[in-house]
Amino acid sequence: MKTSLRLLAHRRFLPLFTTQLLGAFNDNLFKQAMILFVTYQVYSDPLQETWFNAVATGIFILPFFLLSALSGQLADSRDKAQVIRWVKTAEIGIMIVGAIGLLLPSVPLMLLALFAMGVHSTFFGPIKYAILPQHLKEDEVLGGTGLVEAGTYIAILLGTIVAGVVAGSAQAAAAMVVGVAIIGWLSGREVPPAPPSVARVKLDLNPFRSSWTLVSNTMHVPRLFLAIVSISFFWAIGAVLFVEFPPIVKNVLTGNPAVNSLLLATFSVGVAIGSIAINRMLKGHVSARYAPISVIGMGVCIILFFFVVRGWESLPDGRLYDLAGFVALPDAPLLLGTLLLVAIFGGMFVVPLYAFLTTTVDKSETARTVAANNIVNSGAMVVGSLIAMALSAVGVSAVEQLLFVATMCLVSAWLAQKLHRACD
């Protein structure tokens, strides 16, 4: 087995890793700065906060549904390194718009930038996975995928922490998102060429026809179907958690923005740990062997998290715990520990499935396969967000919805077990 960390010493991996890390950091810094601003300064009603988070989630993932097919075609028929440079150039303009939205402040401008960042991520997403089999050896792909996932969540961790620190300074957040976009552009220029292995084809610009064609051409392969559905169900679970998390922190745990950042940071660390751990457990072999037990473990830990949250003693009169006060609480270590385990098991579940997508098909089809996965994922996340909104509308609290999420993990485990039996 290749030691995955050694890949960071090579140009064939490090610039891509750095570019992805900076993009994920910037993306999360902007999203968190916006959500903290709206949750803590605009709305004071839990239902409104839940609905805003659901709408923001929908706005961000809409481009994945509409443009993933085009992004996959582009990545498989053009030099992937060149596409990365185009995307990172666009990020600078997007972050300028986002910075203006933070400075005014203007919620419509912030949402516009959020949508544009969704477009940015739609075009970068297939490349970050599809380029790995092109630049890495076969026994390095799982390790490289794990490092990309770990780096992504380390970046989310850093972006979350920084967003909490600069929550009261729009000027600092605005300057940072533009500055990081520029650094990401410089890093993207160092990614080695990754020319297409097929002749350049005419792009189908019709988003609905191209999406339908791409998904139907991919999902008819049983193994790919099971992998994509398993990943998509996982992200539907994630969408519900994402929608409900800020209201739970504010209204149940009664934590301030720094507490929200601490919990998200804990989650990010957990996914990073799981991403690296599963590579070592599988010894570089791409397999769904541990996926079913991983997602079951995730569900069990969500139930534990539910009981800790349900028994939490909230502060009265609209008061909020600061970071020092929160971590000093007797139940804080148990809360953070269960959340960490949820994330570790989540990382162990999803990383091998992404590696499976890029190693099952020919290298000329990897970007389109990831793009097809992104289309189905985005649909699943929309469904997850709508379910969270519907449950909130009929009076199911954010805390009670954690039990629904735990139940969804059982379905995800069943799908992963079918994939394991079909492929291993």
Automatic annotation (TrEMBL):
Record-level Gene Ontology MF annotations: transmembrane transporter activity
Localization in the cell: Cell membrane
Membrane-crossing segments per the record: 50-71, 92-116, 153-186, 224-243, 258-278, 290-312, 332-357, 369-392, 398-416
Keyword Cell division in annotation: no
GO CC annotation terms, alphabetical: plasma membrane
Keyword entries, A-Z: Cell membrane, Membrane, Transmembrane, Transmembrane helix, Transport
Recorded topology in the membrane: Multi-pass membrane protein
Protein name: MFS family permease
